[in-house]
């Protein structure tokens, strides 16, 4: 099964009060696709990069249980594991540059708009 979606959306405050800014993921390389930020990969990210909206991915989900949950709409969130490299602190913590470690399928994303947008 293949999916597309946004692992992060720019200029939107997440539940921790953080905001990703455009360019935060510039030059991102290959990272694993996990389930809930742990364990072995549950598939592979085929394409990843920034567009005007955020960090967009296309991935194949090969593990049976996560694929079933995604198809059922129960695992529709995406989330990123990262290390902050450049931060601006104001009313919110602005993530200007991060080192991306992984993208995860999650039931409840930190950022409400970080979602699987297409299953095919």
Automatic annotation (TrEMBL):
Domain Prohead serine protease, first and last residues per copy: 3-117
Keywords linked to the UniProt accession: Hydrolase, Protease, Viral release from host cell
Xref: InterPro entries: Peptidase_S78_dom (IPR054613), Prohead_protease (IPR006433)
Gene Ontology BP, a term: proteolysis
One example GO MF annotation: peptidase activity
Keyword Protease: yes
Database matches in SUPFAM superfamilies: Herpes virus serine proteinase, assemblin
Highest taxon of source: Bacteria
Name recorded for this polypeptide: HK97 family phage prohead protease
């Amino acid at each position: 099964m293949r999916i597309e979606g946004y692992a992060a959306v720019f200029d939107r405050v997440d539940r921790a009060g953080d905001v990703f800014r455009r360019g935060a993921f510039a030059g991102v390389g290959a990272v694993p696709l996990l389930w809930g930020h742990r364990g072995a990969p549950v598939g592979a990210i085929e394409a990843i990069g920034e567009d005007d909206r955020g960090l967009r991915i296309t991935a194949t989900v090969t593990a049976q249980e996560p694929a079933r949950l995604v198809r059922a709409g129960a695992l529709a969130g995406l989330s990123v594991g990262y290390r902050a490299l450049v931060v601006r602190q104001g009313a919110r913590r602005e993530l200007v540059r991060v080192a991306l470690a992984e993208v995860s399928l999650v039931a409840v994303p930190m950022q409400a708009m970080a979602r699987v947008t297409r299953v095919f």
